[in-house]
Amino acid sequence: MEKLINDFSFGLFIWQVVIFVGLILLLKKFAWKPILDAVNEREEGIKNALLSAENAKKEMQNLKSDNEKLLAEARAERDALMKEAREIKDKMINDAKVEAQATGEKMIEQAKAAITSEKNAAMAELKNQVSSLSLEIAEKVLRDELSNKEAQTKLVEKMLGDAKLN
């Protein structure tokens, strides 16, 4: 350090100051403004990016609320459709029950009518068989009674007597 103090030259110092000031003026004129412009541009870019991020955040919140509204509407619509489907299902089941009951009653009535007609047919056939059996029995009894002549004459006289009384 002592060497620096001993070698100090006032002229050299002035020239160094003049060159330093000139360098500062040159830097101010040619380099300082572009550097400040670049810094200002960067600052503006950062501000714009922050504003864009804030706007995007607000837009995301709006979209989120819109999505929630759409989900709520979709749920309400789904619930309404499910309710309508249940009502249609219940109506179809009730209609099927009513139709089945009506068909069952109709079948029961037809069965009753068929049973009644079968019963009447069986009764008529039974009456026919009873009457034919009665006639056969009466014919056999009459043949036995009328086989001899004396019994035949008694029967005819008896019938004539009964006929006169009436």
From TrEMBL:
Q: Which GO terms describe its cellular component?
A: endomembrane system; plasma membrane; proton-transporting ATP synthase complex
Question: What NCBIfam families would the database entry show?
Answer: ATP_synt_b, PRK14471.1
Q: Enumerate the InterPro entries for this protein.
A: ATP_synth_B-like_membr_sf (IPR028987), ATP_synth_b/b'su_bac/chlpt (IPR002146), ATP_synth_F0_bsu_bac (IPR005864), ATP_synthase_B_chain (IPR050059)
Report the coiled-coil segments. Answer: 46-91
- Mind telling me what this protein is named? ATP synthase subunit b
| Subunit structure comment from the entry | F-type ATPases have 2 components, F(1) - the catalytic core - and F(0) - the membrane proton channel. F(1) has five subunits: alpha(3), beta(3), gamma(1), delta(1), epsilon(1). F(0) has three main subunits: a(1), b(2) and c(10-14). The alpha and beta chains form an alternating ring which encloses part of the gamma chain. F(1) is attached to F(0) by a central stalk formed by the gamma and epsilon chains, while a peripheral stalk is formed by the delta and b chains. F-type ATPases have 2 components, F(1) - the catalytic core - and F(0) - the membrane proton channel. F(1) has five subunits: alpha(3), beta(3), gamma(1), delta(1), epsilon(1). F(0) has four main subunits: a(1), b(2) and c(10-14). The alpha and beta chains form an alternating ring which encloses part of the gamma chain. F(1) is attached to F(0) by a central stalk formed by the gamma and epsilon chains, while a peripheral stalk is formed by the delta and b chains.
Native species of this protein? Flavobacterium aquatile LMG 4008 = ATCC 11947
Family classification: Belongs to the ATPase B chain family.
The residues that cross the membrane are: 12-32
Keywords in UniProt for this one?
A: ATP synthesis, Cell membrane, CF(0), Coiled coil, Hydrogen ion transport, Hydrolase, Ion transport, Membrane, Transmembrane, Transmembrane helix, Transport
Q: How does it sit in the membrane?
A: Single-pass membrane protein
One protein family per Pfam: ATP-synt_B
Entry's localization field: Cell membrane; Endomembrane system
